[in-house]
Amino acid sequence: QKEVEQNSGPLSVPEGAIASLNCTYSDRGSQSFFWYRQYSGKSPELIMSIYSNGDKEDGRFTAQLNKASQYVSLLIRDSQPSDSATYLCAVTSGGSNYKLTFGKGTLLTVNP
Amino acid sequence: EAGVTQFPSHSVIEKGQTVTLRCDPISGHDNLYWYRRVMGKEIKFLLHFVKESKQDESGMPNNRFLAERTGGTYSTLKVQPAELEDSGVYFCASRTGIDTGELFFGEGSRLTVL
Q1: Residues of B in contact with A45 (CB under 8 A)
Q2: Looking at beta carbons, which pairs linking B6-9 to residues 24 or more positions away fall under 8 Å?
Q3: What is the sign of the dihedral through the CA atoms of A32, B7, A39 and A41?
Q4: Band of residue A95 on the pLDDT scale cut at 50, 70, 90
Q5: Residue B44 contacts A, CB cutoff 8 Å
Q6: 3-state SS class at B19
Q7: pLDDT at residue B98 above 80?
Q8: Are B94 and B102 in contact (CB under 8 A)?
């Protein structure tokens, strides 16, 4: 049974559009939720963290968390070609604050 | 400031051989993690060091894997003997001791076992 699931993609959006990335998780005890961006061959880079229900905005990025539905999402507004990457959803598990469980990732392509 | 560095970036070995991967965390980061991504799968936790002590090694696949962090600085992950299913990308990550400290990842060491 998968613990963190992401829409498989690839997701293709035109430049300037909103990209919506979704993630569900199975561990109700998870407390911390993260979105990482990974360019091909590069390290995963943290772009958003969220810890409580609701929305969290940072520039063009908005993370949304619904613990009751065990759902977390990432919206990217005004998508740019430089946003093209794999987006990884990660949640904490096992009672640890930083033992991360990852989804497989969603490949996002922003077309100029 | 240098990020998390890993060496080698890519290693190709034959089944049965030994490989040692190295990770240099960001200076001052007490917490060091190893993760692995095998082809087509998600990134999975292997183990966690706090300074030189293993805090959690629940993700280590079997006793062919040995991780060390002598002196609480750099860490090595040795696979001996390597099997085909060990192929994948091994990521190292580090963070400070602050509870909300961001986890910084290295670019990974790609291991190919033939």
Answers
A1: 105
A2: B6/B90, B6/B91, B6/B92, B6/B106, B6/B107, B6/B108, B6/B109, B7/B109, B8/B109, B9/B107, B9/B108, B9/B109, B9/B110
A3: negative
A4: low
A5: yes
A6: strand
A7: no
A8: no
Question: Residue A43 in contact with residue B91, Cβ under 8 Å?
Answer: yes
Residue B95 makes CB contacts below 8 A (sequence gap 6+) with A98, B29, B31, B101, B102, B103, B104
Alpha helices in chain A (DSSP H): none
Is residue B68 exposed (0-12), middle (13-18) or buried (19+ Cβ within 10 Å)?
middle
| Cβ B49 vs Cβ B31: under 8 Å | yes
Q: Residues of B numbered 50-109 whose beta carbons fall under 8 angstroms of chain A's beta carbons: which are they?
A: 56, 58, 91, 95, 99, 102-108
Contact: A43, B35; criterion CB under 8 Å: no
Looking up tokens 């002196």, which residue turns up?
B71
Quick one: average pLDDT of B72-87? 96
Q: What are phi and psi of B54, to 5 degrees?
A: -75, 115
